[in-house]
Amino acid sequence: MTSVPPNTEEEKKIIRRAYRGLLRSIKSKMDGKDKEDVRKAYELAVDAHSKQRRKSGEPYILHPIEVARICAAEIGLGPTAVISALLHDVVEDTDITLKQIEEQFGAKIAMIVDGLTKFKNLDALSPQAENFKKVLSTLAKDVRVVLIKMADRLHNMRTLGSMPRHKQLKIASETNYIYAPLAHRLGLYNMKTEFQDLVMKILEPENFQFVKHKLKETKRDRNQYINEFLKPLEQKLNTIGMPYRISGRPKSISSIYNKIKTKGVAFEEIYDLFAIRIIVDVPIPREKEICWKVYTIVTETNIPIPERLKDWITTPKGNGYESLHTTVIGPQGRYVEVQIRSERMHEIAEKGFAAHWKYKGVKQNSFDVFSDWLDSIREILENPVGDAVEFLNDFRTNLYKEEIYVFTPRGDKRVLPKGATALDFAFGIHTEVGYHCKSVKVNNILVPLGTVLNNGDQVQVITNKAQKPSEGWLKFVVTGKARSKIRSSMKEERRKKGELGKEELMRKMKNIKADFELNADMLVKHLGFTNRPDLYYAIFKEELNAQQALKAFRVEGGRLFLIEDDKPEPEIPAKTPAPAKTRRRRDFKGKPELMIDNKPAAQFKHSLATCCHPVQGDPVFAYVTAMGEAKIHRHTCPNAEHLMANYAYRMMKAEWVDSGNTDFLANLLITGIDGRGVAQKITGIITMDLKLDMRSISMDGNQGFFQGRIGIVVKNRDQLQLAIQTLKNLDGVHSVIRED
Ligand code: MN
User: Fold this and answer.
1) Residue 451 half-sphere exposure toward CB, CA atoms < 13 A
2) Rounded to whole angstroms, what are the CA distances from 385 to 379, 382, 389?
3) How many A from CA of 649 to the centre of ligand 1?
4) Which sign does the torsion angle of CA 564, 570, 572, 574 carry?
5) Are the C-beta atoms of 654 and 674 separated by less than 8 Å?
6) Catalytic residue among 11, 58, 93, 272, which?
7) pLDDT at 101
8) Ligand 1: distance of its center to the CA of 61 in Å?
9) 3-class SS at 385?
10) How far is the CA of 115 from the centre of ligand 1 (A)?
11) Of 11, 58, 92, 597, which is the active-site residue?
12) Helices 219-238 and 287-301, axial angle in degrees (round to 10)
């Protein structure tokens, strides 16, 4: 944004046209006051930004107008959001103060604009995680802050072309890290998809163009196929006597590419390049009935794959999404995904959170999912301890999770993220229940605390006052709430025990007449710790012998001096990795495997940082570079603090886990034409030719088609790829896909 000559007549025309476009896009009812306020906000913004231009050279005011339009047209927000969006940059960039906004537009709008201004500072790369935490507290107060910020980000991403490359990378990786997951969580599917595509276009331009080109190339075939699929359906759908519409849109470029990457298949082999969507226009009370009627018609015409039936109507997703999904075998034996929903469900799927406001109260339950979620954010935020980086990581992992429903012994429904454990449930009930959780019964059977819960489980927690959290508990939980509560309890515990370590150190120092305060920080550094409590705790745990450590020093006037430094020692360079004795390693039975974000590191482009040379077993974290590579640093790396403070959003959890051995199990889904002895042929190839162990096999045949699931044990990806390729070459095999 630069200061330049005032707008020309031509530009003023463009601005007025943009404003009229904005007014047309506002679908919600506006009274006289609303209309007047929108006008006032527009005029104020035009005036305030009149001397500013965007990087592209266009008048700056076009940006807030477009952000307001996105809020109205693409998210479905009303006048309050439109006014706030028009004003979202004025406090930050011009002379207008928050007070003036409050005087002219009231406290509510001032509060939203203030939240948006704080969001802006977040972009300035000041301590990221801290800031983000602040922003989330505004989210808990008024979700519109975040929705407007998303619209702002979307417009910036759409117009990223005129930015220098390094800024593009920064904005894109930040979008990928936090905005796309947030859009997902708020049910803004279109926006999430667009975010991901725009990010991919910048981070992986060649792959983006490749998929785009492929989609274009195959468009005619695809449309022909879709028509062939729809023809028999349409006749039957007409008999229901309800208006409906059908679309067959390809999936997004980034999601297609993701499949190519994670499943290791070629573009041509992705069977769900597109999904058919049937949207019925029915009154709310008849939604469910009609959707199932449509389902019946679809599955009478085509054979369904039972495991693929997803009923998000009976139990909507945590972000409010409702729809009926099924996959059927269409013409030529191809799998086709069909999504069935009502117009109302469709609007919610497209516009997410905002559409819920509209239907709030119309349909029971549909709004609660969000308030539950906001409650959980509030709860995490209220927890005063915990490092901001950990907080952000926890928060982020919870964004993408699907939900499951479980029940208390009294039959109350509780929502938990998929993958949540018995212990997560205990913490979900109440922090105290979590702390004192002794054992858990799932469906009346005692289970380990780390047991993953399933939809519909009935869970009962047995507590004992004497029980308290231990470090190991962190491995048993996935929810942000449980993690942060366990951490804060551990911290307290460590602090208490550390006091004993501290006393010991003080005693030992007193014995040699060294002053404690004068030397403590130097000792922390010298011994390779990041802070005093860590040092104290290590002494308490007897990982460090204080007396031994002090032998390296001589005392002069209460101060400690390294004896080594006394000797002339010119040839040793200062920059060597920290001495091995300060490295605290865990003991592993087998070969420890590096995990990033709880997934094997092999799934990421990664390397070990050269500044701190981590070795197997070191406490480490991952830092994602602008090029998307995960660099593994030690916790004690001299660069760590700086990285965490400034680029917290790029941090990912990394750890070495005991893998026992490096074999891993891969599940393959094989489809093809059912011929004699297909199963034998497949198993023969796996065990005889490839010499791999098989863990499981199941085969289903259905009218000439078969579908098999095989679990094989492989050493690495190459071996897996070879297996997939070999099986694919087999006569009659149609596809071989690795399942998650
Ligand atoms: Mn902006």
Assistant:
1) 19
2) 12, 9, 12
3) 20
4) positive
5) no
6) 93
7) 93
8) 10
9) coil
10) 13
11) 92
12) 120
Contact 616, 686 (CB under 8 A): no
**Is residue 92 flagged as an active site residue?**
yes
Two tokens at 231? 């023809």
Which domains, ranges and CATH numbers included, belong to the chain? Answer: 2-202 (1.10.3210.10), 209-366 (3.30.460.10), 489-566 (no CATH), 589-656 (no CATH), 664-739 (3.30.70.260)
E-strand ranges in 605-725 read 606-608, 620-624, 630-634, 651-658, 664-673, 693-702, 705-714
Give pLDDT, residue 574: 42
Q: What gap in Å lies between CA 325 and CA 21, rounded to an integer? A: 36
Question: Which pLDDT score, from 0 to 100, does residue 433 have?
Answer: 92
In whole angstroms, how far apart are CA 217 and each of 211, 279, 336? 10, 28, 20
Q: What is the DSSP secondary-structure string of 164-185?
A: -HHHHHHHHHHIIIIIHHHHHH
Tokens 């896009």 belong to residue = 25
pLDDT tens sequence across 289-339:
999 999 999 999 999 988 888 888 887 777 778 999 999 998 888 889 999
For position 350, what pLDDT does the model report?
A: 82
Cβ pair 316, 367 in contact under 8 A: no
Q: Ligand 1 centre and the CA of 18: distance in Å?
A: 16
pLDDT of residue 589: 41
Distance of CA 582 to the CA centre of its chain: 35
pLDDT tens by residue, 176-221: 877 888 888 788 888 999 999 999 999 889 999 999 999 999 889 8
Query: Separation of 355 CA from ligand 1 center, angstroms?
Result: 23
Rounded to the nearest whole angstrom, what is the distance from the C-alpha of residue 251 to the centroid of ligand 1? 29
Q: What stretches in the chain show pLDDT beneath 50?
A: 2, 122-127, 362-367, 385, 568-590, 660
Measured CA distances, 630 to 18, 272, 504, 621, 623 (Å): 42, 30, 40, 9, 5
> What span, in angstroms and rounded, lies between the C-alpha atoms of 383 and 387?
11
